[in-house]
């Protein structure tokens, strides 16, 4: 006697495409949140050396070694931006947040004893849970 059967077929290739499209849609809000996180890191006074700036003698407190750069005129903060394109590298969805200020790379990559003040590389560690939450929220909404 025949047994009633339901056959479930799973097209993994199609599912992968659906997941990747949803991930691409979730990256926009996640990028915006990452930009916000970088700007938060750059919006604080330093605890390093105090000195006068400019003709009016405005006082600036620099960042100490190991700290993110202290806000001075806000140029570094205002130059934080996101790439307009989200793209795939195989099954990985990629988008980028960057700082286009001329001196951003030197601050990010020089050792702190030589004046480096990394402000981007700490974002995944400090704000990772927040970014994952945003990504998941928009992934599930997509």
**Count of distinct strands:** 6
Q: What distance lies between the first and last C-alpha atoms, to the nearest angstrom?
A: 46 Å
Biggest β-sheet description: 2 strands, antiparallel
Radius of gyration from the alpha-carbon trace, in angstroms: 22 Å
Total number of distinct structural domains: 1
Spatial order of strands in the largest sheet: 1-2
Bulk shape? elongated
Work out the helix count: 4
Low-confidence stretches: none
Protein described:
This protein is α+β, with helices and mostly antiparallel strands. It has one domain (24-141). The protein is built from four helices and six strands; from the N terminus they run H-E-E-H-E-E-E-E-H-H. It has helices spanning 12-41, 75-78, 104-109, 123-141, and strands at residues 50-53, 58-61, 80-82, 87-89, 92-94, 97-99. The strands form three sheets. The chain has a two-stranded antiparallel ribbon. A hairpin with a 2-residue loop joins strand 4 and strand 5. Helix 1 packs across helix 4. The longest helix is centred in the first third of the chain and has 30 residues, at 12-41. The protein is elongated. The N and C termini lie far apart (46 Å). The relative contact order is 0.19.
